[in-house]
Amino acid sequence: MITCSAPGKVYLFGEHAVVYGESAICCAVELRTKVHVEKSESIIIESTLGTTGIDHETHPYVSYAIEKMQQLANIEGVRIRIESELPVGSGLGSSAAVTVATIKALDILYECGLSLEDIAGKAHEIERMVQGNASPTDTYVSTMGGVVMIPQRKKLPLIECPIVIGNTNRFSSTKELVGNVAKLRSEFPEIIEPILSDIGQMSLLAEKLVHENDYETIGKLMNVNQGLLDAIGVGSAELSTLVYAARNNGAISAKITGAGGGGCMVALAGKDSTSAIANAIEDAGGEAIITKNTEEGVRLESLNG
């Protein structure tokens, strides 16, 4: 049995704008999805969502990953078991992580010889098949790890301050939210396009700040980014409650991460404020997760289970 894992991610800047070619800065976090694969008499996919064969409703990402890898290898029967620290539909890149880890595990099991660039590319193709107009950000960061500027695919220094995630535990559909922004952009292009451009400009400004470890200024820009995400309609009352709970208890910054509408927010914390931020998020009705940026992307965990 082959076991591979891939990390989730948080956006510092750029969600939604990156769909339209604007820049984004995204970092892998040490919350991982593990995929166990072994040859079997039939195709079996097991997760907390249930046990199925190829099923594009229950397990769309894994099902498409199997079908894509069948173009490279004779995959007649395989058992795939998924374990994840990433909640589904939370804005933490759960779909990218499971897709990337599945491709990597099948690549090793069937000796396909894929490069990391190949894995990231195939995973992005699968996300587009499922979501429609999906950005390459999540799949690239999950594959490569670290801090990445997209679409430039430029690696930046690691974020060294603690990261606190607040989960509303409210599912959000990336496909639906991306569609809503697209509709708003088509209705009011002269208003929405400059907002998306401004979000992209913040990523370009922040590149230098990441190199300088200037988290205070990064935090100011992240807070502005949050206001612009609210302006394009991807906020929610639950997210705003957690954002302000974090800011009012020592967070350098706090904003939505991912598609919005529910899911998660992310806060950058000072070393002495991490616990206070996490407690404030819990007191405000969210689930707090203290984590950190990680250099490692997709990786082999075990050749024996």
TrEMBL record:
Keywords: ATP-binding, Cytoplasm, Isoprene biosynthesis, Kinase, Lipid biosynthesis, Lipid metabolism, Magnesium, Nucleotide-binding, Transferase. It is found in: Cytoplasm. Its EC number is 2.7.1.36. One of its GO terms (cellular component) is cytosol. GO terms for biological process: isopentenyl diphosphate biosynthetic process, mevalonate pathway. One of its GO terms (molecular function) is magnesium ion binding. It is an enzyme of class 2 (transferase). Catalyzes the phosphorylation of (R)-mevalonate (MVA) to (R)-mevalonate 5-phosphate (MVAP). Functions in the mevalonate (MVA) pathway leading to isopentenyl diphosphate (IPP), a key precursor for the biosynthesis of isoprenoid compounds such as archaeal membrane lipids. Homodimer. This is Mevalonate kinase. It comes from Methanolobus profundi.
